[in-house]
């Protein structure tokens, strides 16, 4: 599971939703094939870890996998059946806020068909609409 080693503050406010904002990270920088998010969403650290593990498993030594998202935002929860008040709850899990149009992973490989096949399988594990993109190089 991915969690940050250090953080300046233990807990964080929720922040505003970013439904209509489109990300600036819309082109491939490192690889030939990538997975682009169409809708904005929050990815749990477990989702990102399973995505990375499955991509590594599918690609084996055919290519290099790069994840461009990391869960930096803590989400707190209070225990069940606790009364109101008494402060904010403990950190339950970590998330990554992803805007629409962001590329969440890139694969650098010469076997592009294998990378596309791996990303097609990975698309179904995510809770958001995604699109496979190829580099124009």
What's this model, at a glance?
This protein is of the alpha+beta class.
Class from secondary-structure proportions? alpha+beta
Total of DSSP H or I helical runs spanning 4+ residues: 2
N- to C-terminal distance: 34 Å
Number-wise, the strands total: 7
- Beta strand %: 25-35%
Please give the CATH architecture of the domain at 43-79 and 88-134: Alpha-Beta Complex
* Main sheet overview: 4 strands, antiparallel
CATH class of the domain at 43-79 and 88-134: Alpha Beta
Strand order of the largest sheet: 3-6-1-7
Order of helices and strands: EEHEEEEHE
Radius of gyration: 17 Å
- Model regions low in confidence, pLDDT < 50 over at least 5 residues: none
Q: So what's the overall shape?
A: elongated
Q: Overall mean pLDDT score?
A: 88
CATH superfamily of the domain at 43-79 and 88-134: Ribosomal protein L16/L10
CATH fold naming of the domain at 43-79 and 88-134 = Aldehyde Oxidoreductase, domain 3
Helix content range: 10-25%
């Amino acid at each position: 599971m991915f969690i940050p080693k250090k953080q300046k503050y233990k807990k964080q406010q929720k922040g505003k939703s970013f439904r209509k904002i489109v990300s600036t990270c819309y082109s491939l920088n490192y690889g030939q094939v990538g997975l682009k998010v169409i809708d904005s969403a929050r990815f749990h650290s477990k989702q990102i870890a399973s995505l990375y593990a499955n991509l590594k498993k599918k690609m084996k030594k055919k290519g290099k996998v790069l994840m461009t998202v990391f869960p930096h935002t803590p989400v707190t929860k209070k225990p069940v059946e606790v009364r109101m008040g008494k402060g904010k709850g403990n950190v339950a899990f970590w998330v990554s806020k992803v805007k629409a149009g962001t590329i969440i992973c890139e694969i650098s490989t010469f076997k592009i068909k294998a990378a596309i096949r791996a990303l097609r399988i990975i698309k179904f594990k995510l809770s958001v609409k995604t699109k496979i993109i190829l580099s124009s190089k």
